[in-house]
Amino acid sequence: MYFFYYFPVGLDISTRRRPVITIFLVLISAVTFLAYRYLPFQYSWRLTALVFYPAHPSLATAFTHIFMHAGYLHLIGNMVYLFVFGRVVEDRFGPGRFFLIFSLSAAAGVWFHTILTGILSPQYLGYGIVGASGATSGLLGAFIARFYFSRIRVAYWIFMPLQGVNKAGRSFVPGWMAIAFWILFQSVQSVMQFGIEGMQVAYSVHIGGFVCGYILAAAFGARKSARFESMLSKARRHFEKSEWFAAQGEYINYLDQRQDDAGVHTEAARAFLCTMEKGQAQYYYKEAITGHLRSSDRGAAEAVFVEAMRSIPGFALQKQAHLDLAFGLERSLKYNTAMTAYDNFKTRYPLAVDIPFILLRMAGIHERRFSRYSEAYSCYTRLVEDYPDDNWADFARSEIARLTGMGVISGPSGKLSCQV
After folding, report:
1. What is the spatial distance between Cα 94 and Cα 137, in angstroms, rounded to a whole number?
2. Burial of 341 (C-beta count, 10 Å sphere; 0-12/13-18/19+)
3. Which stretches of 46-163 are DSSP H helices?
4. 3-class secondary structure for 190-244?
5. What is the pLDDT of residue 404?
6. pTM value?
7. Mean local confidence (pLDDT), 80-100
8. Which CATH number fits the domain 3-220, given the four candidates 3.30.70.20, 3.40.50.1580, 1.20.1540.10, 3.90.1700.10?
């Protein structure tokens, strides 16, 4: 016996939001299956009304049959496909369009099967249809329209006894190849099953659903969006292979079209850091931080700001943005990074009117958070010496006297400096 089997277990595509509708569909399918299988007969028999019968088709059952399954393997197989492919389709198309693709593909699948069966094998019209196969096939159609460039991680098993081959594992394969093989298999099975007594699987449902999902995705602009994201996918693959210059080129091409993608600006900065082009990296870090702030994602902006300061000595933003993030880091108790931000600001903008206040902030962190009294004393001293007429100068003089009176400072010393 020769045997080859593969099953999708993952994708190389990241999602940006929780797939709420996908999770809901998985749960409602599982609950319906368990209710029909295990509830007493008098409570569960009505669930048979959800089945689609080609001999007596109805608009309602063209959708409700999705939630009925014939057995555990049938349910698990459909739910795995739904979760693996549904979450990325929902992420890119949005919940509304995703649900439209899912439900219309299911209806298109059973109606296509009804028409084909009526023409070729009308004796099978009395066979009921259950399961989300048509709907998940529609998701595959939408997936290949939107993510033709992606890779699918499959679990596989190859059994060839005469050659002594028995191999199983997991591997990434091109998405278009895996789905092309799948649709070819469905087409062959669909042709073969007509005329054979005892139709068990309605393969033509899969074909109708797949075509419907592809058409709907194309109508929603999938091809145009896919063209841009394919550049990003290529960039990430080049980066994974340490092909830095190729990655940089793809990132630039993508960002020329999608300048508001803050996350990709960060990725581009990392690619330029790998070739020691810190000037370019600094530009992309700044664009990333600005983009996150523009979209009110302050947490992401602070994270990129910290990464940039660690990667590029002296990294600084525009005055107001830099100070705003530095104050935020201090408020969130990230004192070491806040001190780095303050010090970078002093270096980049030595004549800024905010320097005296920054010296006070740094002195407070040195003393109250790290008990570094000498460094705090140095900050106060610098404020008095360099900005004697500033509004904060008198306060700094009182702090110098206080620290000296505490005995933690032996006395004024010109050798101390306010550094991180």
Report:
1. 18
2. buried
3. 61-64, 72-93, 95-120, 133-146
4. HHHHCCCCCCCCCHHHHHHHHHHHHHHHHHCCHHHHHHHHHHHHHHHHHHHCCCH
5. 87
6. 0.74
7. 95
8. 1.20.1540.10
